[in-house]
Amino acid sequence: MSIIERPADIARHGALGTSPPRPDGIEKVQGTFEFSSDISADGCLWGATLRSPHPHARIVAIDPAGAWQIDGVHAVITADDVPGQMNYGLISQDQPVFASDVVRYVGEPVAAVAADHPETCRRALAALAVEYEVLDPLLDAEAAIAGDHPPIHPDGNVIRHQRIIHGDPDVTGAVVVEGTYEIGMQDQAFLGLEAALAIPDPGAKGVELHIATQWLHEDRTQIAACLGLPEDAVRLVLGGVGGAFGAREDISLQVHTCLLALRLGRPVRMAYNRAESFIGHVHRHPATIWMRHHATSDGEIVKIESKTVLDGGAYASTSSAVLVNAITLAQGPYRCPNAVVDGWAVRTNHLPCGAMRGFGAVQACFAYESQMDKLAAACGIDPVDIRVLNAMRTGDTLITGQPVLNVAPVEECIRETAALPLPDEPVGGAPMPDGSADVMKLPGGAGRTADAGDIVRGIGWGVSIKNLMYSEAFDDYSTARCRFTDGVVTLKFATAEVGQGFVTLAPQIARTVLGVDDVRLDRIDTQIGSSGSTSASRQTWMSGGAVNAACLAVRSKIFDHVAEENGFDPAALTIDGTDIVDSVSGWRGDVAEACAGATFDETAEYHHAPTTELDENGQGSPHTAFAFVAHRAVVDVDPELGLVKVVQIATAQDVGRALNPLSVIGQIEGGIAQGLGLAVMEEIIQIDGVIRNGNFTDYLLPTFLDMPPVVATLIEQPDPYAPLGAKGVGEPPCISSTPAVVAAIRDALQQAGIDRPLDRVPVRPGDICL
Amino acid sequence: MSEMEIFSLHVNGERRDVTDSWLGESLLDVLRDRLGLVGAKGACEQGECGSCSVVVDGDLVCSCLVMAASAVGQQIVTVEGIAPPDAPSDVQQAFVDAGAVQCGFCTPGLIMAVHDLLDRTPVPSDTEIREELAGNVCRCTGYGRIIDAVQRVAVARVELSS
Ligand code: FES
Ligand code: FES
User: Among A197, A262, A496, A568, which is least packed, fewest CB within 10 Å?
Assistant: First the structure.
């Protein structure tokens, strides 16, 4: 992968624009970094969860007697043991801590036990007798919309219905293309499984929870409500997080672990295994999107029409916000003056769905980018040219009427991607020295493919838009504290480090603002205000903004102090490297020495500009900011066996400013791997409401052999609205990489004379060859 | 728990008594929960992800698939035994420098697998790296920086030896 090299003299090492090593890197390579699953405590018991085997059933009776007969069992709890609020949820509180009357998905918690060993827990769960009366499950999202099924929840079967009417709804175009697209249910599949340790306070007056999460304060609010405790009696500490990707935004085992610990007055650990993880967290919404584009005969988009249906599963989670992304971004990164868009997020007896990297934008993008290729074909225009022709620019409006005020280098993203070199590798891979095919380069790998001569290569495009931060009038602020004493800066924040590297970035900000190299990080916990969630590509902007503001506040105090000591005008002082400089006298002195004996301690909040809710016609300014990216995929396809090998992904991404180029590269490559996964292999299969592939043998993840080389260009146009000029970079890579791969497969098949719609992801071998 | 077994393992050059394990515990569980060596991680316990990789008598294995009691008398090396705490190995340092670590959950397993790969194949091709490490899943990095780290070590070792 190409990395943008910057001249070494722009920034001192460790400041913004450089790529210092992660502060937790050495611990992580040595195996001493403490993940939440590694944390234990003296006298600790283990907890485990009993889950529903039915997608929809009434609980007739729960008999715990069998569990109590097992040696080593210390507690059995059910809904009757929840002292506070019975339900939780991120947007609406509709999900029970334990099901009390009805279970609504396979895997819904019904009871929990605590015992001396995980194996004792397993036996106790097996001995818990629950009598169910099986009910008719609602498994069809369209039936939920049509009202064909009695409500499966007091809140009804429709979580949200929202339409968007923009411009002239009746206008038509000379060219019309349409299609119906399906997106399968993807799992975040972070490697570090859910795990937590709860330590009760004496007298069960409070609890400390060590937890791998994306948002400590939101967890605390929901946990405290269910425990019936004041929020300040519930203290959360971030346990080492082994990836998140959206799956840790909702509550999973948090409340259960605390309940058991408080009940017993002893520390309790809970840890999911992979099978439980698959049913224990929310997933990416499966979607069906019908879309029709109207365009002029030259290919200029005139109007889009669409209907989006998201299957939210049994509980609401963030479905309504995912829906808003999916419909408000339905035009993609293209100008579109008129729109008639309809969207539904519905409740079914499937696994609950919520946040996953890309959050609604992923589903929309597969539809609109498939449409753009259809439009290009219908107009006889090259796929690149039609995208450039329609590319959004700063000042254009979304179909909600919101102006896109951010830097919008869509055309640059496309052109820079097109300028990246195509792979040198010949079709089917470079041959071995003896002239035979290198089987490892063929689709399907060793021994799985037809003759190398049958392999066809295709090229496909995907371009996307992503909103950054939370939307619809939500004030997702962030808080940070900066303390400077004895030449050391200490930063404190509650920003969840999930692997993305905020712990690297925050000290870079402090070094740059304050001119101090020794920057340390305090523990990440709830002993400070909220930082909001590590999601929506928002922490560089929001928590970066908060750290920047706290450091600026300290810098201002430093300038006052130095000015007073030396008789300078504080307004004339600046930081240059590690020095303070008086621009009037030319005096310069080391920051740490100039502040010897003094302590400065400032806390700051950063808020983004307010946004609005959508009105009944979907009009408003719901989003905070936008980022863009283009992807070009090259694939080799074996049309007979339906096998695909992705050969290369090229990308140019709108990053605003690369504050840590190596971290940006890591987000780009990692995100593309997840986009590739959705394109060709990743899908949770549920049959009759039962997950059938909830393990890593059957749920396929991209490996070293599946992931091709990535070539990338960073488009650096600092965004004037971003506190550091930088846009969030985490989500865009996984959004349009998916349709790019699928378009490349379609292109390869067309060259082989095969016409397949490939209107569903992941693309399965049978979709190609049958 | 019934059927408690008492046995000894040789881990990272030391004899470690396992006094409270029951028959059937995996090497991964015994290392983590009985011996306090939490460097090896469990992410699938099915042999699919490589997070639990350790070396047993010179062979790289998934410790989730090995019964602890079957490793009696064998030399076990975990990530904690790869290098002293104050002197990370060349592979460990290269992972940090190359940006091959994000969440780090896959990292200990990959450190074991990369040492094993480079011991057997000092200058691996891109395909060899991908093939040899395909048993180690990383969900964060997309593998690019890990491959870079492996190549950096291979180059540095060649330079060192010439
Ligand atoms: S935990 Fe052993 S291979 Fe995944
Ligand atoms: S760094 Fe997170 S799984 Fe590899």
Answer: A568
CB nearest A440 (choices: B32, B92, B131): B131
CB A737 within 8 A of CB A462: yes
ipTM over 0.95 threshold: yes
pLDDT tens per residue, range A531-588: 999 999 999 999 999 999 999 999 999 999 999 999 999 999 999 999 999 999 999 9
- In this structure, are A585 and A684 located in the same domain? no
Domain annotation for chain B: domains and CATH numbers: 4-81 (3.10.20.30), 90-161 (1.10.150.120)
What type of residue is A629?
A: V
A395 inside domain: no
Give residue B130 CA to ligand 2 midpoint distance, Å: 16
Structure tokens at B125: 């091709």
- Give the SS3 label for residue A703: coil
Q: How far apart are CA A522 and CA A507, in angstroms?
A: 11
Q: Do A588 and A689 fall within a single domain?
A: no
Q: Can you read off the two tokens belonging to residue B13?
A: 């050059």
A670 Cα: distance to centroid of ligand 2 (angstroms)? 9
- Which CATH number does the domain housing residue A503 bear? 3.30.365.10
Whole-model pTM? 0.97
Query: Where is the domain boundary, A606, A638, A655?
Result: A606
pLDDT in tens, A378-394: 999 999 999 999 999 99
Ligand of minimum distance to the alpha carbon of B28: 1
Could you tell me if A530 and A659 lie in one domain? no
Enumerate the residues of chain B whose CB falls inside 8 A of the CB of residue A501.
Answer: 102
pLDDT in tens, A307-348: 999 999 999 999 999 999 999 999 999 999 999 999 999 999
Residue of A nearest to B105 (CA): A242
Indicate whether A340 belongs to any domain.
no
Sign of CA dihedral A393, A394, A397, A402: positive
At A205, is the secondary structure helix, strand, or coil?
coil
In a domain, A294, yes or no: no
Selected residue of A30, A699, A701, A710 to mutate for chain B interface (largest B Cβ count, 10 A)? A30
Give which of B124, B68, B19, B101 is closest to A501, Cα–Cα: B101
Listed residues A237, A269, A301: the one ending a domain: A269
Task: Name chain B contacts of A670, Cβ cutoff 8 Å.
Answer: 102, 139-142
Report the CATH number that the domain containing residue A230 is assigned in CATH: 3.90.1170.50
Instruction: Answer whether residue A579 is part of any domain.
Output: yes
Can you tell me the mean pLDDT for B21-31?
A: 92
Residues B95 and B111: their CA atoms lie apart, in Å, by 8
Secondary structure class of A648 (helix, strand, coil): strand
Mean pLDDT per 10-residue interval, chain A, length 770 residues: 49 93 98 98 97 98 97 98 98 97 98 96 98 98 96 98 98 98 98 98 96 98 98 98 98 98 98 98 98 98 98 98 98 98 98 98 98 98 98 98 98 98 90 84 76 91 98 98 97 98 98 97 98 98 98 98 96 96 96 95 98 98 98 96 96 98 98 98 98 98 97 98 98 98 98 96 95
Domain that holds residue A29: 2-33+476-606
Residues A540, A559 within the same domain: yes
**A559 and A535 co-located in one domain:** yes
Of A28, A191, A665, the one to substitute when testing ligand 2's pocket (max ligand atoms within 8 A of C-beta) is A191
Inter-residue contact A315 to A107 (CB < 8 Å): no
Produce one character per residue of A549-571: b if its CB has 16 or more CB atoms within 10 Å, e if not. bbbbbbbebbbebbbeeeebeee
Q: In total, how many domains does chain A have?
A: 3
A356 Cβ contact list (under 8 Å, min separation 6): A186, A188, A245, A246, A247, A282, A283, A284, A362
The CA distance from A200 to A222, in Å, is 17
